[in-house]
């Protein structure tokens, strides 16, 4: 019995690694092709938009990544006694990851009193909800799938998407970890407050150290235009914001209040949905816990018999 299970777990490890390498390869090829074709189009003076096959590569890579996680998780659950992941959980995660991608592309807008490149979007809501259902790891998978699917449209050679990935992880991991231990409405409110704080802090740091340098050095966005945009918002173009104080105004009068406002909207929608989906969440969570207990019980009985 143990020999057969060892062979199955080894097979899962091999298949998972192959799928993971295939997914990463497709994603990298998509990013390289996207950057290459964009350079050609820019040099020719044409307006560039990613080709359909680049989207196909990136989305396919994301799907392979998700499939590899199922196999690797099966191996890790046996090797390190993690909780097992069933088909239903994988299906729910895939659905919520798809919703996150859809909301990113079709559920965002700008605010006139913030820089135009800061978008209010609600793609974090599915990630938070699925982390409520199955824990922070499920939310992390959702954030990663969204990251891979966003890469075809990158204008910063993936650096902006990387910053968004880090911000999403900084938000969803503390939220999911706290709620995992406190599965009540009060626990949901507290976990959301923790996620809002950590996400906002990560967004300030990411804009300071990653996004703005990437816009200037990789996307070749002129610093003068950034300063002019921020000065128009702060003083109506009277020259209050200059290059030397741009970052301070941008971070503390732009990024900080913008992300607080965005997360208030995101978490308000999450709470409203949570109240309506709480029975569904408990149903999925309860089944998952029950199935894991039954599986662990069966494994313990097998170990006793084998010994």
Give the arrangement of secondary structure elements.
Elements: H1 2-43, H2 52-80, H3 87-106, E1 108-109, E2 120-121, H4 124-134, H5 136-150, H6 159-181, H7 185-217, H8 223-235, H9 246-306
Antiparallel strand pairs: 1-2
Q: Strands of the largest sheet, in order across it?
A: 1-2
Number of helices: 9
Query: Given the C-alpha coordinates, what overall shape results?
Result: globular
What is the terminal separation in angstroms? Answer: 12 Å
Calculate the mean pLDDT score and round it: 78
Structural class: mainly alpha
Rg is 22 Å
Oligomer: single chain
Largest sheet: 2 strands, antiparallel
The total of beta strands comes to 2
Q: Low-confidence spans: pLDDT under 50, at least 5 residues? A: 287-307
As a percent range, the share of strand residues is: under 5%
Provide the helix percentage.
over 70%
- Topology as a string of helices (H) and strands (E): HHHEEHHHHHH
Features:
307 residues; mainly alpha; two-stranded antiparallel ribbon; 2 strands; globular
Protein architecture, described:
80% of the residues lie in helices and 1% in strands. The chain has helices spanning 2-43, 52-80, 87-106, 124-134, 136-150, 159-181, 185-217, 223-235, 246-306; strands at residues 108-109, 120-121. Strands 1-2 form a two-stranded antiparallel ribbon. The chain has 307 residues and is mainly alpha-helical. It is globular and about 75 Å long. The longest helix has 61 residues, at 246-306.
In short:
With 307 residues, this protein is an all-alpha fold. The protein has helices at 2-43, 52-80, 87-106, 124-134, 136-150, 159-181, 185-217, 223-235, 246-306, and strands at 108-109, 120-121.
